[in-house]
Amino acid sequence: MSAIKNESTDELLRQILPSLAVQIRIPLGNMYSTLQRLLRRYPATGEELAPFYQSYYRMLRLAGNLSDAQELTSEEPLPLANEDIVAFVHQICLQAETPAELCGQRIIFQSSKSAHIMAFHPSSIERLLLNLLSNSMKFSGKGCLITVSVTVRRDTVELTVEDTGPGLDPAVPLFTPYLPPGPRDSSPRGLGLGLLLCRRAALGHGGNLLVSSLPNVGTKVTVSLPNIRASHSLLRDSVLDYAGGFNHTLVELSDALPAAAFLPPQLDH
Predict the structure, then answer these.
(1) What is 81-248's CATH number?
(2) Which of 98, 99, 116, 130 could form a disulfide bond with 252, CB atoms 3.0-4.6 angstroms apart?
(3) With contact defined as beta carbons under 8 Å apart, do 215 and 166 qualify?
């Protein structure tokens, strides 16, 4: 029975969910075109359209996660490029600072070194960090302090995202896709793919991801990556942008942000 279940799960992750993502993207394109036409015709309605733009970005995020679900069945290493991991992570934090302020939260970046060149897969690390930031912003509440750290050691480089929130519910499994118990369950918990994809990104680097949490203290996620350099240069991915050219930060944080972050004049800035 377990073998049948595993085969069904692999089929779901490899084919069904990515195919569903394609079907979602088609009406999304029509939806965005309609929003743009409405905004041009009735500029004063921009504030009223903000929730619709937010919904659009949330659907983009969902489609991206569904497309990447097939990665969860793969054990192949990710293609790595030599870049400055400190500058890369710092830039992501800078882009997330203003959205976090809209949630009444603050992001602090710190690093044990001012710069460090190592081999990593840029798009995977970007989505990993933004996903972890989204979780902290979504579940920690106003006044939360989120610290993002880069710690360079001899053999590893640790990326940590730590918040001062209420901590995680120990009854909720962290690395299990979430399926609602019934058709009437409307809780906005998502599908539980985000943290799984984060762990896959870490494993694809030959590293790992660990989560620790204490009630009323906070949650800390540590991503350990091998401190290595690639022997050859890697050309940046030429595949289709999962976000369709839209602001990656707003897409990945869309579940955590208020509608005010999606006022048309502010989008993609």
Answers:
(1) 3.30.565.10
(2) 130
(3) yes
Q: How far apart are CA 218 and CA 208, in angstroms?
A: 20
The count of C-alpha atoms lying within 13 angstroms of the C-alpha of 205, restricted to the half-sphere facing its C-beta, is 31
CA-wise closest residue to 235 among 80, 53, 91:
80
Contacts of 107 (CB under 8 A, 6+ apart): 93, 96, 97, 100, 133, 146, 147, 148
| CA R_g for the chain | 19
pLDDT along the chain (269 residues), means of 10: 50 72 86 87 81 91 87 89 97 96 96 97 96 93 94 98 88 65 51 86 97 92 97 59 83 93 68
Euclidean distance between CA atoms 98 and 106, whole angstroms = 9
Please give the span between the terminal C-alpha atoms of the chain, in angstroms, as a whole number: 51
For 100, the token pair is: 């976090």
Contacts of residues 265-269 at CB distance under 8 Å and 24 or more positions apart, as own/partner, are 265/46, 267/53
Token pair 């990945």: residue: 252
Query: Which residues have CB under 8 Å from 76's CB, separation 6+?
Result: 204
Q: Is residue 46 within 8 Å of 35, Cβ to Cβ?
A: no
Question: What are the structure tokens assigned to 235, written together?
Answer: 């050309």
Q: What's the token pair of residue 85?
A: 């991991």
Asked if 211 and 220 count as a contact pair (C-beta separation under 8 A), the reply is yes
Alpha-carbon distances, residue 63 vs 82, 119, 200, 227, 240 (angstroms): 29, 28, 18, 32, 13
